[in-house]
Structure formats: structure tokens, C-alpha cells
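#structure-requests
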Amino acid sequence: MKTTLFVPLLLSLTLLLSSCADGPNKAGMGAAGGAAGGAILGQAIGHNTEATLIGAVAGGLLGYIIGNEMDKYDREQLNHVYERGVSGKTNAWRNPDNGNSYQVTPQPAYSNPSSGQPCRQAAIQSVIDGKQETIYSTACRGNDGHWQLQN
């Protein structure tokens, strides 16, 4: 494993998470959840420390971006799509407060083999401050009934 590559990445993620330690916020919570989910997914796919670190960094950054840009309204809309959205059908909304827009296309639900939780994958297209971005994500329903992004 090339530690010279992963140490800076891991330090960057640590700084990102520690900068959010002053109190709960959307970006920090998204980064923490994304890092955890990414690490688990990286380990499951690669079965080694290198894959786990890559997954943690990628998941942390993805979670930070989503958590930072999506407010309560957007998270409620996204939760609704994961819960009731028709597989393969795009659901779209525009946030009335900040003008950001989203299009989410969920895939069929499946049962997570390790936890038994219902999960769904989705393509999430966003336009934030005029910049378009597409991410592919997986969410699983938590014990509280809300869907939690895994990567």
C-alpha cells in the first residue's frame, strides 16, 4: 500500500470532519455518514485497507457536498423519493428558498445482505448555483424510518 498517497487523503478527511466539531451541521453530519458508509463499501469491495481508505475519503467528500447543499426541504423530498418513488421514474423539485433544483431517479429496492435493511440506488442530478452535477448514490432505511445515504 502506498501510504504516501493515503496519508494526505486521510488527513484531509480528518480536517474536514474536525472542522465540523463545533456543533452539528448538515455538512459535518453528511461527511461523517458518508465516510463511514464509504469505508464499509470500500472494505466490502476491495477487502483491504487501501480500498477502505479510498471509500472513506470518497464517501466523506460526497456526504459533505450533499449535506452542505441540501437543506431540510430537499432532504424531505429525497426521503420521499426513496420511500415512495416509482423505480426508473425521475422525480424533480426546485427548492423555493435557495433555487437549487434536483432530479432523482430511484432504482428498485433490495434488502441489504448484511443488515437486512431496505436499500435503493438512485441517480441524483442537481443544479446548484448554476452548476450541474450528477452523483449515483445508495440509501438504506434507518431504524427511525428515514433513508440514510450510504455513499
